[in-house]
Design goal:
24% of the residues are buried. The chain has seven helices and no strands. Helix 2 packs across helix 4 (86-100), helix 2 packs across helix 6 (120-131) and helix 3 crosses helix 7 (136-155). 66% of the residues lie in helices and 0% in strands. The protein has one domain (4-162). The protein is mainly alpha-helical. The chain is globular and about 55 Å long.
């Protein structure tokens, strides 16, 4: 049985791990000058692995259309992140940076190889574990990834047909 003390110790250890991982990533990958938030190759690979799993069946089946849709989703996700307050952008960058670090990727996400080699089932299992994790920090991280990917996807009018949404009422568009 987990005691309150051990639960608090685990939570503190997880918070310290997240903070240290984010700090290491920020030191190794300083932000670009134009935008406080940037995705380097490793962090971009995290998004490229997570986006198709989160979007799942709403993506087109045909390969070229699917690639174009994923590219658009990644661009819109980055645009959405750039619209966030600076402090939130840094937190998101820390999250992607943490997931890009090999030890954190293995320990927190359960993905042993690189994100480029991760099977969709591995990524789905990682997302599901964070979604239902007992630590609120990991649940919050899952919700951030979910909202950052799905929000911009469904804000795009070309995505509405996949869910049968006809668009806003004409009376409301003025």
């Amino acid at each position: 049985m987990t005691t309150r003390r051990s639960f608090l110790k685990i939570g503190a250890a997880a918070a310290i791990t997240l903070a240290v991982g984010g700090a290491i990533y920020r030191l190794a990958h300083p932000p670009a000058l134009r935008h406080p938030f940037t995705l380097d190759g490793d962090a971009k690979a995290v998004l490229a692995a997570i986006a198709p799993v989160m979007l799942g069946p709403v993506l087109p089946a045909e390969a070229a259309a699917r690639a174009a849709a994923l590219d658009g989703a990644m661009t819109r996700t980055l645009d959405a992140i750039h619209g966030l307050p600076l402090g939130t952008q840094k937190e998101v960058q820390d999250l992607f940076g943490l997931l890009a670090l090999a030890p954190a990727r293995r320990f927190l996400a359960g993905v042993s190889g690189s994100w480029e080699q991760a099977a969709p089932q591995q990524v789905a299992a990682f997302l599901d574990s964070w979604r239902h994790h007992r630590l609120a920090t990991l649940q919050t991280a899952y919700l951030a990834l979910h909202d950052l990917i799905l929000g911009p996807w469904y804000a795009e009018p070309s995505s509405w047909a996949a869910i049968g949404y006809p668009g806003p009422l004409k009376e409301l568009q003025k």
